From TrEMBL:
Belongs to the glycosyltransferase 2 family. This is Glycosyltransferase 2-like domain-containing protein. InterPro entries: Glyco_trans_2-like, Glycosyltransferase_2, Nucleotide-diphossugar_trans. PANTHER family: UNDECAPRENYL-PHOSPHATE 4-DEOXY-4-FORMAMIDO-L-ARABINOSE TRANSFERASE-RELATED (PTHR48090). Residues 8-136 form the Glycosyltransferase 2-like domain.
Length: 266
């Protein structure tokens, strides 16, 4: 197996400490499987020199966002910039490096060998606080009820795609979406795409700084931070409006796997 051009896209906010090492690790692991790899980092107005930490790496392209928009819109910007490079395979991962490089070839092999449209890295070994586990469980239940199928890690940020599939998904989701990967997971099921799941290891974020986490830190926090409560309410409303309600735009969408990039019919 040799992929002519692999593009790995990642959103990043204040990841200067760990992101270059993470990229080095991914590159080392995927090099035997690719002819070329390009990394696209959507920098969400970091204030810690994230872009400077990547400036001299030739296979890294940094896309500085005009304003700080949070994870979802930044992830979508990273997808769009990566797709513009016409990759043969596209991988998305968060810039905080919570995965091992050795799991990337596992995803790529699963995508190639099973003829899948998309492969999800299903995270094991997470140490989330209780309120995140509750939220994750609720979203998982909602998706199972809505789609009639269990999706083991609905919001995983580690995914490998055939590019036309990623293009169709990105085109179908609003640019400002808070939780694009939840919408993707639902649309993949609704559209009948072939989705494969591989177990991957989840590790602590690589930078020592706490500024990157949206959720507060560690299982010792007794109550969900107010920011998370607000985010959860907004995100659940968005999932209802965009993907689940009877009039939701993504509900009736049928993505066409073999159509040209971007094709999606209402
Ligand atoms: N916190 C935060 N992260 C952002 C923002 N924009 C992009 N990101 C990136 O989004 C990714 C996910 O953010 P995290 O805060 O790690 O969210 P998470 O992985 O769900 O939470 P943890 O399990 O605590 O790591 C990271 O790669 C960030 O660099 C932003 O405005 N705030
Ligand atoms: Mg994270």
């Amino acid at each position: 197996m040799s992929i002519p051009h692999l593009v790995v896209v990642m959103p990043a906010f204040n990841e200067a400490e760990g992101i270059a090492g993470f990229i080095d690790e991914i590159r080392d692991c995927v090099t035997p499987l690719v002819e070329r790899v390009t990394f696209v980092v959507a920098d969400d107005q970091s204030t810690d020199g994230t872009a400077a930490a990547l400036a001299d790496i030739t296979d890294v392209q940094v896309e500085r966002q005009a304003v700080n928009r949070g994870h979802g819109p930044t992830a979508l910007a990273a997808y769009r910039a990566g797709l513009a490079l016409s990759p043969d395979v596209l991988v998305h991962v968060d810039g905080d490096g919570q995965f091992l490089g050795t799991d990337f070839p596992v995803l790529l092999r699963a995508l190639a060998s099973s003829d899948a449209d998309v492969v999800h890295g299903v995270r094991g070994g997470r140490t989330d606080p209780w309120y995140r586990k509750v939220l994750t469980g609720c979203v998982r239940l909602l998706v199972a009820l809505a789609s009639g199928r269990g999706v083991p890690d609905v919001n995983t940020p580690l995914r490998a795609y055939r590019p036309e599939v990623a293009q169709a998904l990105v085109s179908a989701v609003p640019d400002e979406s808070l939780v694009p990967h939840v919408h993707f997971s639902l649309a993949e099921v609704h559209s009948g795409f072939t989705v494969r799941y591989v177990r991957v290891r989840s590790i602590p974020r690589r930078g020592a700084s706490t500024t990157g986490t949206m959720w507060g830190r560690g299982p010792r926090i007794a109550l969900p931070p107010a920011r998370l409560r607000t985010f959860a309410v907004e995100a659940l409303g968005e999932v209802w409006r965009t993907s689940l309600s009877p009039t939701a735009p993504l509900r009736g969408i049928h993505l066409i796997p073999d159509a040209p990039a971007g094709a999606a019919k209402p």
